[in-house]
Amino acid sequence: MHEFSLHSGNKAGIQEALKALSAADGNALDATIERIYHPDARWFGSHPINEQQGTDSIKEIWQRLRRSFPDMERRDSIFLVGTSGSTEYAAAVGIYQSNFTADWLGVPATHGVAHLRYGEVHELVDGRISHTYALWDLLDLLRQAGIWPIAPSLGAELAWPAPATADGVRFGGEDAELSASSIALVHAMHQGLFRFDQKDLDSMQQHKYWTRNFLWYGPAGIGTARGMGGYRAHHQAPFLRAFPDRSGAGHYIHMGCGNYAVTGGWPSVQATHTGPGWLGLAATGKNVTMRVMDFYRIENGLIAENWIPLDIIDALLQLGTDVLERVAHIRGRPNSRL
To answer: Are strands 210-217 and 302-307 parallel, antiparallel or unpaired?
Structure first.
């Protein structure tokens, strides 16, 4: 029996199902996955999980996670349900909170409370999940474990807060005109980004789209910035120096939900690493693609807050830096092979 559908009266059912999934273990976990996922569902996750297919693979992802986080609780600060084109989605930002009692994907257990930060987009077909995009921030989990294997972040490394308006959990039924205007604002801002003349940041005219003191919540490795000055200094300028030819690679979701909007691509950015500075790296000349989601809160026609799940570890691997290998080295298991 299906537990949720955006066409049913219980639009909160998808969130309830995902909360049940995160709390289940053992046989109950496997049964929950079989109930809420299509048998051939696809999973697109942060490195080293990457792309998986079928419920058996999805069960293994969750069983490994739950063995390390035995009392896990899902806490959504943003949860949006709606449609992008003709496709139904649920999209969320939040944390999995638990005692972290066993190493996971090369991250050492803290044996205390830890937060696994996530951005997730779930595509729904006939009342079940057909695709999951899950950007889980392993680098932030490493920070909590006391290991920092890359250059210091330029922005502030801190826990992502919930929306300032405390209204990020939405189950549809939003004003259609407001939802359309929210995603239209985001599209206009994106178009401005690609008007960069490679000389002057003002050429993108980003001041048209953001509030004066907006907050930009970047992934671990970049960090959080406030206002246009902080955003440019801590993220935009270093990124554009490193990737002056960056371009969009396409989005699978463009969704407005009242005064919120979400976009995401697998990948959503492609670029050539021809300049220095991003994450402390010298230019490598390598091509890179980036797995990114963006969640936006709109206030009086401008973007006030932006949460950015981004798979930093995968991007660095493409540029020749294996973060998890560095972690293993730091922990006393160096790779001595040439």
So the answer is: parallel
C-alpha span between 239 and 105 (Å, rounded): 28
Cβ-contact 299, 211 below 8 angstroms:
yes
Q: Among 117-121, 126-130, 155-159, 270-274, which stretch is predicted with the lowest mean pLDDT? A: 126-130
Instruction: Tell me the C-alpha to C-alpha distance, in Å, between residue 270 and each of 73, 179, 285, 323.
Output: 35, 28, 13, 20
3-state secondary structure of 214: strand
What is the token pair recorded at 151? 């250059």
The residue type of 282 is A
Nearest to 189 by CA among 207, 168, 215, 212: 207
Query: Which CATH architecture is the domain 13-144 placed in?
Result: Roll (3.10)
Cβ-based burial of 247 (10 A; exposed 0-12, middle 13-18, buried ≥19) = exposed
CB–CB of 24/32 below 8 Å?
A: yes
Residue 87 to residues 67, 121, 131: CA-CA distances in angstroms? 34, 12, 11
What size, in residues, is the chain?
338
CA dihedral sign of residues 192, 196, 197, 201: positive
CA atoms of 21 and 97, how far apart (whole Å): 14
Domain 176-325 has CATH 3.40.50.150: no
Q: Which residues belong to CATH 3.10.450.50 in the chain?
A: 13-144, 176-325
Give the separation between CA 47 and CA 110, rounded to whole angstroms. 21
Instruction: Give the pair of three-digit tokens for residue 44.
Output: 């697109």
CA torsion sign for 299, 219, 255, 185 is positive
Q: Are strands 247-248 and 260-272 parallel, antiparallel or unpaired?
A: antiparallel
The band of 336, judged by pLDDT with boundaries at 50, 70 and 90, is: confident
Does residue 163 sit in helix, strand or coil? Answer: coil
Q: Are 224 and 155 in contact (CB under 8 A)?
A: yes
- Read off the tokens for 186: 């985001």
Enter the DSSP assignment of 233: I
Q: Label the pairing between strands 169-170 and 260-272.
A: unpaired
Q: Give me the pLDDT at residue 120, please.
A: 98
Average pLDDT, the chain: 95
